[in-house]
Design brief:
The chain has one domain. A hairpin with a 2-residue loop joins strand 1 and strand 2. It is α+β, with helices and mostly antiparallel strands. It is globular and about 55 Å long. It is built from 4 helices and 4 strands; from the N terminus they run ααββββαα. The chain has a 4-stranded antiparallel sheet, with helices on one face. The protein binds zinc ion.
């Protein structure tokens, strides 16, 4: 699927990442990483969530508000495609959890509007 610049900018805004030309270019690359399931969640370090992301090499990404990645691009920029991919993954998982919670709530009140349990 081709991501337009407008969609890329929207994704950046949702993730609260600055909408720069560089970051807009990183979004489709990050989406490919996500779609190809190249992110492995490997645990926690305090409040940081740790991931391994398969790119040219395997990079370490730690997430806490902002991603920190071990790739060369991340050494000179705040955001790289691996970090953005991890942010997309967390956003997706949060959304899925909220939808599941809403579905459970809807079930609970399904019986004539009375609480079932
Ligand atoms: Zn990176």
């Amino acid at each position: 699927m081709i991501i337009t610049q407008k969609q890329a900018a929207l994704a950046l805004r949702l993730l609260e990442i600055p909408v720069s030309a560089d970051n807009v270019r990183r979004v489709p690359r990050a989406k490919t990483i996500l779609d190809e399931r190249r992110i492995l969640s490997v645990g926690m370090d305090g409040a940081d969530r740790l991931y391994k992301v398969v790119g040219t090499e395997v990079y370490d990404v730690s997430m806490n508000h902002r991603p920190r990645c071990s790739c060369p691009d991340a050494q000179s920029h705040d955001y790289c495609k691996h970090g953005i991919a991890c942010m997309m993954l967390e956003f997706k998982l949060e959304r899925a959890a909220i939808e599941k919670q809403e579905a459970l709530e809807a079930d609970r009140f399904a019986c004539d509007g009375e609480e079932v349990y």
